[in-house]
Fold:
Amino acid sequence: MAFSLEPLLILLGLCVSVTTMLSSEAQPLRVGFYSDTCPDAESIVSTVVNGAVSSDPNMAAILLRLHFHDCFVEGCDGSILIENGEKSEKNAFGHQGVRGFDVIERAKAQLEATCPGVVSCADIVALAARDAVFLANGPSYRVATGRRDGLVSNVSLADDMPDVSDSIFQLKAKFQNKGLSDKDLVLLSAAHTIGTTACFFMTRRLYNFMPGGGSDPSISPEFLPVLQSRCPKNGDVNVRLAMDEGSEREFDKHILQNIRQGFAVLESDARLADDENTRSVIDSYFDPMFGASFESEFVDSIVKMGHIGVKTGSLGEIRRKCSSFN
Structure:
């Protein structure tokens, strides 16, 4: 009986086609992704970030926040960097006060001069956040790279960002929708251990907390007058105050102690004490006998966050300029 090779060749062709598709669209992130194509990529980003933080110590917190806001909308794809008019994602209410775009653009310009068309803006954001944490005396960690830059940036896509006035149930749901656990919620919120916020975000908590108005009853009576003196009623909403009272420049677990004691500045941070699960996570870092390592578990959470919705292979592009699509 004659044997036809045609079905086998078709099958092999399909296998080749599927393999090609997987290699172009489903490449996993990996540490050292640019070791051959742009070996100085990470050191270039580090140098730019180091200079920016030296000029403005708040820049460490700014770059860390930028990474979070990028990943929570359309995944970690640099969509927040795009400048395309009023519809730009960066103009979303949930992104108010987000900065650091100029630092990312400076790093990108240097990378383009060294190895054009190789390093994505999305990876620069992730690497800059890592360097920012380290420069704030936080843990050092490795970042898997290989992200591509997204092809979409629209203000409407940022409607579901976590908000300072969210309840603990809303916060948990928004994190769960991104594949993040209650522990991740606590640890990533603890990134507020560095940086400042504006009185704009404090007005409701201090003077019109619902139900009933007045101030948030979870604020320590000792701390309330301190906050009200810094953000007086009908005062300048642009005045800034530390998010971690007593430790705004050090990346540490001090903010979790503040949350336990009623000294949280942001309302969303205070809400972590409202839930048994998130409260037990906080307490675990203060157990004198079996306490977990805040630093190592923060690294686990931020690395996990850095994999949200990444585009790889042919699913994105490498922008020539971070603020515009190619």
